[in-house]
Amino acid sequence: MAKRIVLIQGHPSSGGGHFCHALAEAYAQSAAAAGHQIRHIAVADLDFPILRTKAEWDAGPVPASLKPAQEAIGWAEHLVILYPLWLGTMPALLKAFLEQVFRPGFAIRTVDGGLGWTKLLAGRSARIVITMGMPAFIYRWYFRAHSLKSLERNILGFSGIGPIHASLIGSVETSAAARRRWLDRMGALGRQGR
Questions:
Q1: Among 92-96, 131-135, 189-193, which stretch is predicted with the lowest mean pLDDT?
Q2: Is the distance from CB of 59 to CB of 106 less than 8 angstroms?
Q3: What's the pLDDT tens digit per position in 157-166?
Q4: Which class for 77: exposed (0-12), middle (13-18), buried (19 or more C-beta within 10 A)?
Q5: Distance between CA atoms of residues 134 and 145, nearest Å
Q6: Residue extents of the structural domains in the chain
Q7: Burial of 107 (0-12, 13-18, 19+ CB in 10 A)
Q8: What is the pLDDT of residues 122-149, one digit of tens each?
Q9: Fold (topology level) of 4-192
């Protein structure tokens, strides 16, 4: 069954040329060939300010440059978020994007005088794709995949998105054959809309 899919490219370098970009392209091409509808959000190509206060996050206007991203996420049934691991977490630009986009009124709505919330993005699934120089099992075992868990629980899950699956791609600089296998896996996931 065809899905509406949004790919959120979280690599902070614009214009492609990185493995995250190649993975997104492999996924998108296979998904489109399988009949899925695809939209792209390239965070590096967007111009927006960072949030600096809780009041801004609670009630400030969402920048006009991010309204299309909110519209695409609202349209989607499945999100694919790709980023490289930088200093153990997502790049700051991607975090700033998520803080701006996943705001009250779009991702959540508080209820009961602020004592609870409604998850406004329920009914969507997600895949998180993280590339890293270290072996992925080290990230999972020694570092406990803390940035992945934070994104799953504190942003996506908090908004109602689920199920959430992850593809952790470690040792990305080791061999062309290993990168080719990962590109093939991303193509297979794209065909399945997963």
A1: 131-135
A2: no
A3: 999 999 999 9
A4: middle
A5: 12
A6: 4-192
A7: buried
A8: 999 999 999 999 999 999 888 888 899 9
A9: Rossmann fold (3.40.50)
